[in-house]
Amino acid sequence: MSDPTNNKPAPVLRESATFDRLTIQEIQRAAETGIYDIRGGGTKRKLPHFDDLLLLGASVSRYPLEGYREKCGTDVVLGNRFAKKPLYLKIPVTIAGMSFGALSANAKEALGRGATIAGTSTTTGDGGMTPEERGQSQHLVYQYLPSRYGMNPDDLRKADAIEIVLGQGAKPGGGGMLLGMKVTERVAGMRTLPVGVDQRSACRHPDWTGPDDLAIKIAEIREITDWEKPIYVKIGASRPYYDVKLAVKAGADVIVLDGMQGGTAATQEVFIEHVGIPILPAIPQGATDRLRRDSQRCRRRQGHGAGRGCGGDWYGSTDRARRQPSTSGRRTEKDRLGSGFLR
Questions:
Q1: Which Gene Ontology terms describe the biological processes this protein takes part in (predicted)?
Q2: pLDDT at position 313, please?
Q3: Which of 47, 90, 225, 310 meets the CB 3.0–4.6 Å disulfide criterion with 229?
Q4: How far is residue 57's CA from residue 135's CA, in Å, rounded to a whole number?
């Protein structure tokens, strides 16, 4: 390219460690079009991964099993905290939610068949439940999303578990998009949308504004399903230490923690690449540290004669937090933690 006023070549932007060729191209594209880039898939940056883990073998402190004559079970039970019909899976690996629309009906059916053969569960995703998927899935988890696309109480009752989606690892705090080219007549009919038009999913549920409303919604779904189905709460990994505590307090049977490596049908690239935290550091924050501290606190309270069990009822404000409010008139961090409203 050249400058038409003086016929001099335009300056070339040199690459650097911070601004590589793709970054420069994206800045130029955004400046020219005035819109952010939308794409599907997951993050392209290098992140800690499960392949980085090393496993501890058995020796003296953990005696090994003879594989050809001793059984090593991998089965897992999900939802026996409150549900009348918990989920019994043969393996602790499940298939996450991918919507009908992002995937075809044949793909959803294939996932159901594969999950059934493996003895695990698959998940509907946004847009509702298809007969093909339900018919071929022994264990089907129904996602209850902010968009409410395709949601109806009958499908809630047909499912084997309900997953309330509060966030997604690829875009925690942000909504998604289904491009118009994928909104066929069938997809549009299930979602009550016009054919061929881009569809944006909401970033939060329309009928609640905080953790207490989540507890109300869980109770409502339990009533709709006659307390039969396990209820999951899915969280995009961002503040797992606090989010896990609030989900447990709200009465969730299962907590799904989704790291930023998770994929999506379509959203802003800046969300995919720069929002959230990877799953490996999220697990210790959300599961290990939070639940260990809470279980220790529960045991201490039992030892002092509090007379409470270790269920969801004890996730309330501490006696000390109630007796000693902040002297400045504002709630301290400890007060907010105790009542479950730390944002």
A1: glutamate biosynthetic process
A2: 32
A3: 225
A4: 40
Which of 323, 100, 343 minimizes the C-alpha distance to 239? 343
Residues of the chain with pLDDT under 50: 304-343
Give dist(CA 170, CA 176) in Å, integer: 10
Please report how many Cα atoms fall inside a 13 Å half-sphere around the Cα of residue 105, on the Cβ side.
12
Q: Over the stretch 43-79, which tens digit does the pLDDT of each residue have?
A: 888 898 888 889 888 888 888 888 788 888 899 999 9
pLDDT for 301 equals 54
Residue 340 phi, psi dihedral angles, 5° rounding: 80, 30
The pLDDT assigned to 243 comes to 92
Which pLDDT value is given to residue 269? Answer: 87
Whole-number Å distance between alpha carbons of 181 and 120: 32
- Check: pTM over 0.85? Answer yes or no: no
Cβ-based neighbour number of residue 336 at 10 Å: 17
Number of other CB atoms surrounding residue 207 within 10 Å: 11
User: What are the angstrom distances between the C-alpha of 328 and each of 224, 322, 325, 331, 336?
Assistant: 45, 15, 9, 8, 14
- Rounded Cα distance, 343 and 330, in Å: 15
The H or E element spanning position 243 is: helix 240-250
pLDDT tens by residue, 106-124: 999 999 999 999 999 999 9
pLDDT at 321: 32
Half-sphere exposure (Cβ direction) of 161: Cα atoms closer than 13 Å: 36
Domain map (residue ranges) of the chain: 140-299+313-317
Q: Contact 98/76 with Cβ under 8 angstroms?
A: no
Going from the C-alpha of 41 to that of each of 38, 102, 300, the distances in angstroms are 10, 11, 46
Beta bridge partners of 256: 234
Instruction: Look at residue 222 and give its three-state secondary structure.
Output: helix
The answer to whether 253 and 215 are in contact (CB under 8 A) is no
